[in-house]
Amino acid sequence: MFKNIVIVGTGYVGIPVAVMFANKGFNVVGINRTKEKIDLINKGICPIEGDEPNLPELLEKVIKEKKLTATTDYSVCKTADAILICVETPFDSDKWEPKYDSLKSALKSVGENMSKGALVIVESTIAPTTMDTLVKPILENTSKMKAGVDFLLGNCPERVMPGKLLYNIENLSRVCGGINKETQDRMLELYANIVKGELYPTDCLTAEVVKTTENAYRDVEIAFANEVALICEKLGINVYEVRELVNKAPYRNMHLPGAGVGGHCLPKDSLLLSYGVKGIMTPELMILSRNLNKQMPIHTAELVINAFKENGMDVKSKKIAVCGFAYLENSDDTRNTPAMGVIETLKAKGAKVVVHDPFVKNYPGVEINKDFEKTIEGADALVFVTAHNDYKALNLDKLKKLMKTPIIVDGRNIFNKEKVNEKGFIYKGVGKG
Question: What is this enzyme's EC (predicted)?
């Protein structure tokens, strides 16, 4: 029987997982190295902002019921029946290797504190073979116990996304990769408490490959849509009309193109999957797709630059307002945000860049403004990188009065090109010739 659960990492994965187990009556402790975040959680305040249905309310509820607490102290692992590791695992594109600093640190601390019989599960997305070559050795060396004998070890990759954190955990199927059948059975028993979707037992390596493949697959599909968007721009037609008509055909589901791909998973998981076969083979299609998607923020910035050029102006010294800094609409998640690529490209051309986002509080090196009208006042161009609902409701007449030069560059198909042109704006959009 499971009673005490420890969640290592209280971010976009750890917080909703902790809240859901706590709401089911388990005694849950969340571990985070940041005291500020720990203090917020213990006060019942959700550190994740944006439109996140039911999460703030449920967090407040389980904190009041004393079913969830947060700490920086790994000694709570001593009494844990299950320990779920939910830390970030970025990828260093320059060194072409995963950045496992947080994972290694968490594993070492868990190994030093866990007790015999504990079930340790890695929910973080990791490269294939990582469970066998990194996770297991660290836990065994620090705990002086043997995996599969003295403790159980598994990999159950998360499938969350901002805006649907609780929904995805509860309703999507999960892959439960265990070191042996006993581990798989225990994982099924544990996750059945919070998951209504199907639970599929398998081995750790298969679970690792499934997770990285599902995101690499989506990244490739988005790259295809982006390439079609670039073709449509050159041909002078609208990619969104093309997409709609393509998807009328059976077995077709062309994805949405846009200003770039962000988030924790898609920009790195094809790289993690490739890293898993380093020295054995070199995947080509998914790497080409990754590189194409990486270029979309630069392309979006170039649309801004070209809008000025085509109207006899230079972007240098012009005030450009980047609208949306989060990578996903109605979220505060800035991980791998494509907005940075847009900002850096425009600044390199001498533009004066200001940034607005209704959800993001702060980001290192970037001033995020909350007052939209003050941000765009006197702007020479607006470039929309994130499709927040606030932007979809904007009044074009009011926008034009506030701006110095009426240029709109639309990276997310927020506006109708013809309507914007009718209002006297110069308009360019990704995929719109």
Answer: 1.1.1.336
* Token output for 30: 């969340």
Beta-carbon contacts of 103 under 8 Å, excluding residues fewer than 6 positions away, are: 85, 87, 89, 122, 124, 126, 134, 135
Alpha-carbon distance 149 to 145, whole Å? Answer: 8
Q: Quick one: 174 and 311 in the same domain?
A: no
Q: Is 265 a catalytic residue?
A: yes
Residue 211 annotated to the active site? yes
Does residue 265 lie within any of the structural domains? Answer: yes
Number of domains in the chain: 2
Do 24 and 88 have their domain in common?
yes
Q: Is residue 384 part of a domain?
A: yes
On whether both 170 and 248 belong to a single domain, the answer is: no
User: What single-letter amino acid sits at 217?
Assistant: Y
172 and 251 co-located in one domain: no
Name the active-site residue from 37, 67, 136, 211.
Answer: 211
Identify whether residues 283 and 362 lie together within a single domain.
yes
- Is 182 inside any structural domain? yes
Residue numbers of the domain that contains 108 = 4-197
Within a domain: residue 390?
Answer: yes
In tens digits, the chain (433 residues) has pLDDT values of 899 999 999 999 999 999 999 999 999 999 999 999 999 999 999 999 888 999 999 999 999 999 999 999 999 999 999 999 999 999 998 888 999 999 999 999 999 999 999 999 999 999 999 999 999 999 999 999 999 999 999 999 999 999 999 999 999 999 999 999 999 999 999 999 999 999 999 999 999 999 999 999 999 999 999 999 999 999 999 999 999 999 999 999 999 999 999 998 999 999 999 999 999 999 999 999 999 999 999 999 999 999 999 999 999 999 999 999 999 999 999 999 999 999 999 999 999 999 999 999 999 999 999 999 999 999 999 999 999 999 999 999 999 999 999 999 999 999 999 999 999 999 999 999 9
d(CA 104, CA 177): 20
147 and 255 share a domain?
Answer: no
Catalytic-labelled residue, pool 77, 265, 323, 428? 265
